[in-house]
């Protein structure tokens, strides 16, 4: 579809994928009517900051803010999309209105997975969640965090920094699934040194009372705290696309350019990217950005647009450590040290792959990401 045929575009979702898609549409030459629909009342913000700087910087309420965009779109915030009619090319909103489009970008992201329906279960997904948690930490309650992934560990780190006593419940050693046993050991060691209690269990559930749930472990042990936070994954927001034929196993499969169908692009946490083993999510901030760029270009130029080329990038800040990693995760075995050495201090590590590339990780905030990308692409 050319820019001449593409006069009205609706972007559904105002996270980083939606924002990037809108900016890229303008950069690609689209000068028509652009509308962004966002179910939160806030302008687009940095989601990674919510469990990092926003929890830690007690006098800083701007860590999540992004630079103002120049896309000039009409922004409908605090409004939820409830349906899509691909044949009529309409997006239905929860206020009863319909938005016509020539092209649409699906970027509704995901929501926190919950362990219960109890009001006392706290999750961290959006800005309001983060501000609410930050406010509760001011009272220094005892905290139980359920979930040993990056989000759970970042939340536990922020709670400790706020002066709380914190227990983290995990299936196995925290971060192992995401970072591999070597890096996981480095982070868990730093966490324990700072006072984190780590409990390993096969499963955990929450039970009442409604506003003060207890965590019941598979072994029968009961953990009680003033605050229970769960960080056990997310659920793609695809229910509003029911009946469109666009959803398979809870995801929106796309081609190598980010198109689900001609005129329908998708990017971010609801997308299944093509792999030899079928559609797969890559729920990373950097992935959402690159997906949105490719999808917006494909919406304008179709098959003439370049396919997505994505080099995974992951970063986390927790327990006094700052990690930046480029390349496939988790890496296997122990790394080669290009700088520094074991012990948790500043270091540059590389796990080589058979094809000559590698996964590169820096425990040093001063090392720029472009250098990590170069080291990942070629032999060190």
TrEMBL record:
Molecular-function GO terms, alphabetical: oxidoreductase activity, acting on NAD(P)H
Pfam families: Pyr_redox_2
Signal peptide residue numbers: none
Domain FAD/NAD(P)-binding: 8-292
UniProt keyword Oxidoreductase present: yes
Keyword Phosphoprotein tagged: no
Gene3D superfamilies: FAD/NAD(P)-binding domain (3.50.50.60)
Cofactors named for this entry: FAD
Protein name: FAD-dependent oxidoreductase
Naturally occurring in which organism (per UniProt): Streptomyces sp. SID14436
């Amino acid at each position: 579809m050319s820019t001449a045929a593409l006069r009205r575009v609706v972007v559904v979702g105002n996270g980083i994928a939606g924002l990037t898609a809108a900016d890229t549409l303008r950069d690609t030459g689209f000068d028509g009517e652009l509308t962004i629909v966002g179910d939160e009342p806030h302008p687009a913000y940095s989601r990674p900051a919510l469990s990092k700087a926003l929890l830690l910087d007690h006098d800083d309420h701007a860590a999540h803010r992004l630079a103002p965009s120049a896309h000039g779109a009409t922004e409908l915030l605090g409004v939820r999309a409830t349906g899509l009619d691909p044949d009529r090319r309409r997006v239905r909103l929860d206020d009863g209105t319909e938005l016509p489009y020539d092209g649409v970008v699906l970027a509704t992201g995901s929501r926190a997975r919950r362990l219960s329906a109890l009001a006392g279960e706290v999750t961290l997904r959006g800005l309001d969640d983060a501000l609410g948690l930050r406010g509760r930490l001011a009272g220094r309650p005892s905290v139980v965090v359920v979930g040993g992934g990056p989000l759970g560990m970042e939340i536990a780190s922020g709670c400790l920094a706020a002066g709380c006593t914190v227990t983290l419940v995990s299936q196995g050693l925290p971060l192992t699934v995401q970072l591999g046993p070597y890096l996981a050991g480095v982070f868990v060691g730093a966490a324990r040194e700072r006072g984190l209690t780590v409990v390993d269990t096969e499963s955990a559930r929450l039970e009442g009372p409604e506003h003060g749930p207890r965590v019941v472990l598979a072994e029968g042990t009961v953990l009680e705290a003033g605050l229970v936070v769960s960080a056990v994954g997310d659920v793609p927001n695809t229910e509003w696309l029911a009946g469109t034929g666009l959803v398979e196993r809870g995801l929106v499969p796309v081609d190598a350019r980010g198109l689900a169908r001609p005129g329908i692009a998708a990017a971010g946490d609801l997308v299944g990217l093509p792999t030899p083993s079928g559609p797969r999510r890559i729920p990373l901030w950097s992935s959402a950005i690159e997906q949105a760029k490719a999808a917006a270009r494909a919406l304008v130029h179709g098959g003439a647009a370049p396919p997505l080329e994505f080099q995974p990038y992951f970063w986390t800040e927790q327990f006094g450590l700052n990690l930046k990693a480029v390349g496939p995760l988790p890496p296997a075995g122990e790394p080669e040290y290009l700088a520094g050495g074991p012990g948790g201090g500043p270091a540059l590590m590389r796990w080589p792959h058979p094809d000559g590339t590698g996964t590169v990780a820096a425990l040093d905030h001063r090392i720029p990401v472009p250098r990590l990308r170069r080291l990942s692409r070629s032999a060190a």
